[in-house]
TrEMBL record:
Similarity comment text for this entry: Belongs to the TTI2 family.
SUPFAM superfamilies: ARM repeat (SSF48371)
Record protein name field: TTI2 protein
Signal peptide: none
GO cellular component: cytosol; nucleus; TTT Hsp90 cochaperone complex
InterPro entries linked: ARM-type_fold, Tti2
Source organism per UniProt: Polypterus senegalus
Transmembrane intervals: none
Segments forming a coiled coil: none
Superkingdom, natural source: Eukaryota
């Protein structure tokens, strides 16, 4: 089907000329596109809409590139970029997700059953359009007095990017075929902008030769990312997160005033899924924006309070994203310990750890592991409590607590001796539990637990064998300060007696091997 037949079918026949051999219509492209939009809006059934989209694809394929995009001849005086942007937006509106008025921000999956096919059909139109628009870059206007404006392809990039990002991933409004088409469209966007990847498309090239489209994308999304609008379209938050994660430092700093409030709004939702998504955005901001900019206008302090409030939850999914974000943020707010004037002065690290340990002491569902000596009294109760509770078959809690204990012994060893009898007893009990465990815990996990128990006992045995003169000095200092402390000789004798007694009465080969390793280490230290 040639162009004249397509124009006739679309009711765009050229009545101004009888020259049927003309390579292009004598009407401006704006009139053609306006009529196409009218016909498309008038089509009510999916079948008729699909038929018009098929005609549009044929129309774009057959039309002359010069007539479609050049601001001269029939298009003289027209803003071609704005005309095509309006046309593309009208097509994209056909695929917009149903408006969600629910407070949850989510609709049943059945609400999206028409979206994947619509998106696929629109994508096929946009693929042809972008290919044509890219070819226009190599053409010059026939009228030398016309100054070329911004390329129509560049004008279309932000809105088409958001459309492609909406349908890239596995969500209720996508299918395998619609995702494949969206990925193909995203690749073409990158190619059209002469970029290597999506990051370069959003940020621009490192040499500063081109400007990325991330600012334009945020500008288009801004009305949808307000406190009272971000839930109306379920895709909005996912597109925002996906595009944000593509922008690293130093480019992200420029857009901080736009991305920071939106991320806080999403993280402040009552649903855990949205909190997690929002915190992921905030963590990316913390990692990719200079500390000075985060501290400016008290942003870092606001973020600290927002994250601190999340620590009151017992939801593991949320805690797992909040803690890494909080730890990285504390490096922005607090001076490094080797620079601080008084390293023992309480700060926000203490506030965070105090709250975490309080919840761990009362709650056995949180998966944590944070090290510090100042809180050993509470940390000891947490460690002993967790080691007593089996969480087969994964045994994640006891495994992480053993790792925590190992690091605590390494970093806080001067204050471990008074707690030796409690820790050894707890570790020996764990050895017995593992050796008599008949649950579904895999043997590899049991071996890993035994390995970490052995490491902890070895560290405790090394602690008993520290330089006795140093231990004597510590003992004298503690007496002067009226602080109770165990005699190091008694500590060593206690450890040998306990482990030796257990080793002599143990019938499990793996446990005996662990104990023998520890006892042998103690003999070498004598």
């Amino acid at each position: 089907m040639d162009l004249s037949e397509i124009l006739t079918k679309l009711q765009l026949e050229n009545k101004e000329t009888s020259d049927s051999t003309s390579p292009q219509p004598c009407i401006p492209v704006s009139k053609a596109l306006s009529q196409i939009q009218h016909l498309f809006r008038a089509a009510t059934s999916p079948k008729s809409q699909e038929g018009i989209l098929k005609d549009i694809r044929s129309f774009l394929s057959a039309a002359d590139v010069h007539w479609l995009f050049s601001p001269c001849c029939q298009n003289a005086g027209l803003n071609i970029g704005d005309i095509w942007k309006e046309f593309v937006n009208s097509l994209i509106q056909h695929t917009i997700l149903p408006k969600c008025e629910l407070d949850s921000g989510e609709l049943p999956e059945s609400s999206y059953q028409l979206i994947p096919d619509r998106a696929k059909n629109i994508t096929e139109v946009l693929l042809i359009l972008l290919s044509k628009a890219a070819a226009e870059k190599h053409l010059n206007p026939c009228n030398s007095t016309v100054v070329p404006e911004t390329s129509p392809a560049s004008t279309l990039l932000p809105s088409v990017f958001i459309f492609a990002a909406t349908h890239l991933q596995d969500y209720p409004w996508t299918t395998a075929s619609s995702r494949f088409a969206a990925n193909k469209l995203m690749d073409l966007l990158v190619e059209t902008a002469y970029c290597k990847n999506v990051r370069e498309l959003l940020c621009g090239k490192q040499d500063g030769g081109t400007t990325g489209i991330f600012g334009a994308v945020l500008e288009l999304q801004r009305p949808e990312l307000k406190k009272d609008t971000w839930k109306l379209n379920q895709a909005t938050k996912h597109v925002f997160l996906w595009s944000l994660l593509q922008v690293p430092r130093p480019w992200l700093c420029v857009h901080l005033e736009h991305v920071f409030p939106a991320s806080l709004i999403i993280s402040d939702d009552y649903r855990t899924e949205n909190k997690v998504l929002g915190v992921r955005c905030l963590h990316h901001i913390v990692m990719n924006v200079p500390a000075a900019d985060l501290r400016q206008y008290n942003r870092a302090q606001v973020l600290y309070h927002a994250l601190f409030n999340h620590l009151y939850t017992s939801d593991a999914d949320l805690i797992q994203v909040v803690l890494p974000c909080m730890l990285d943020l504390l490096q922005v707010l607090e001076n490094p310990s080797h620079r601080a004037g008084d390293p023992r002065k309480p700060n926000r690290y203490d506030e965070v750890l105090r709250l975490i340990l309080m919840h761990m002491e009362m709650e056995h569902k949180i998966k944590l592991g944070i090290l510090i000596a100042r809180h050993l009294k509470r940390l000891e109760r947490v460690i002993v409590g967790f080691l007593e509770v089996c969480d087969a078959p994964e045994e994640e809690a006891r495994l992480y607590v053993l790792k925590t204990l190992e690091s605590t012994i390494r970093h806080a060893w001067p204050r471990i001796a008074p707690r030796l009898h409690v820790l050894v007893k707890s570790l020996v009990n764990l050895l017995y539990d593992v050796s008599t465990d008949c649950s579904s815990t895999p043997q590899t996990m049991k071996d890993e637990l035994l390995e970490h128990v052995t490491r902890c006992l070895l560290l405790l045995s090394e602690l008993c064998g520290q330089d006795l003169q140093f231990c004597h000095d510590v003992l004298l200092t503690c007496k002067e300060q009226h602080r109770p402390v165990l005699n190091p000789f008694f500590v060593s004798s206690f450890l040998k007696a306990v482990l030796g007694g257990v080793h002599g009465s143990c019938s499990d080969a793996r446990v005996s091997q662990c104990l023998e390793k520890v006892l042998q280490s103690m003999r070498c230290l004598q």
